[in-house]
Amino acid sequence: MIKYSILIITIIITLFSCDGRYHAKKQPLDRVAAKELLLSFTENLKYFPEEYTEFTNDTILSNGYTVKIKNYSDMENNVLQTFKTSTTTNKHYFREVITEVEVYKNNKQIFKHVLDDAFLSLSNTDYVLNQVYIDEIKSLNTNTLHLVASACIPRTVSCPVYNIAIDPEGEYLITKI
C-alpha cells in the first residue's frame, strides 16, 4: 500500500511541476519558429485570375472588315512574382492570356493568328498580354485594320503598347507605340 502511495504522490508532483511557465512567456510565433513549422505556414500563393476566364468580341466595321477576338486565360503557363512581407513569402502567379484573332475582309478570311509573346517578339518572358482591341477610328480612316495590343510585366509600369496594322491582303506590320 505504501508503494502505491509513493507512486501516486510522485505522479501528482510531476503533473503539478509541469505548469507551462516556460511556454507562457514565449510568443506564439516564437514557439512555432522553434519547432521549424514556420516555414510551412508562411507561403501565400495567389493566382490571377483564379479561374479560367474567356471572352470574345465580334466587330463589324463599315469598311468591310469583320474581326473576331477571343481572349482566354492559359491555365498552364504563368508569370511568377515573389515578394516578402515580414514573415510571409508571397507568390503571385499571373496567368498568361492567349488572344486568337480572325480578320475577314468582305467575308474572306485574310488573317488568323494567336497573339502571344512570340508573335509580338517579346524577348522578356515576364510580360503578360493583357488586352487587344481595335482602333476603330484609325481603321476606318486608313482602310486597314489597326489592332492595339498591350503587354505588361505584372505590378510594374512597364507596359509596352503595339500597333498591329493589317492590310486588305492580310499582310501585317507590328510597331511599338
TrEMBL record:
Taxonomy, superkingdom: Bacteria
UniProt name for this protein: Secreted protein
